[in-house]
């Protein structure tokens, strides 16, 4: 896959996607958003991938937000279309059928914070800063922030972050509940790969269905969510991975999952 603003590497079952606009702190313009959507559409068909890591190029930023200069002079219709383009791209990341880990190496502001929220797990450098500063520009978070953030940390804390537009440390965001771990900058990617390797060693079909149960179940009444959980559990009994996992447990050996 060749992109203008993205770099992609794959080692075994683990892929690493890097937003690569370091001169602009990896800010999101139309090109980046279109390429993210195209990337997601392609990578979801890759049967070898079990975990994707997303990070930013350089030491300063994961993604420092949307490209503000690119938004100057937009009409209301153009602004709405820009928002929908970004939401569509981030939805495509969120809906990937495998685990997605955000490795936040610096600023994750505005669209960068919203991109992180579309991932399944967030690991952050001690130097990382999060925030939704759109109100300081007379705007509001429009790449999913007003929807995903309250689902992640609750409405009241989300209101504080959105209304204030302030920046928050990685440790504060871990306490809020949407950053999983805070790691030294030097070890961030190593730790992301360690976690990715652990997840990749598990039954990939099981991880896919667990992700489906978690992501859709949270929007359902618990009765419907439990019913969905039971159905997905039952579906796994029709997979080779299920036979391998149980067989390996009984035989006291490590399973060799094929994703079938």
From TrEMBL:
Pfam families in alphabetical order: ECH_1
Domain of life, per lineage: Bacteria
PROSITE patterns: ENOYL_COA_HYDRATASE
Protein name as catalogued: Crotonase
Signal peptide: none
PANTHER family named among the record's database cross-references: ENOYL-COA HYDRATASE, MITOCHONDRIAL (PTHR11941:SF54), ENOYL-COA HYDRATASE-RELATED (PTHR11941)
Stored InterPro entries: ClpP/crotonase-like_dom_sf, Enoyl-CoA_hyd/isom_CS, Enoyl-CoA_hydra/iso, Enoyl-CoA_hydra_C
Coiled-coil stretches: none
Keywords from the named record: Lyase
CDD domains for the chain: crotonase-like
Family per record: Belongs to the enoyl-CoA hydratase/isomerase family.
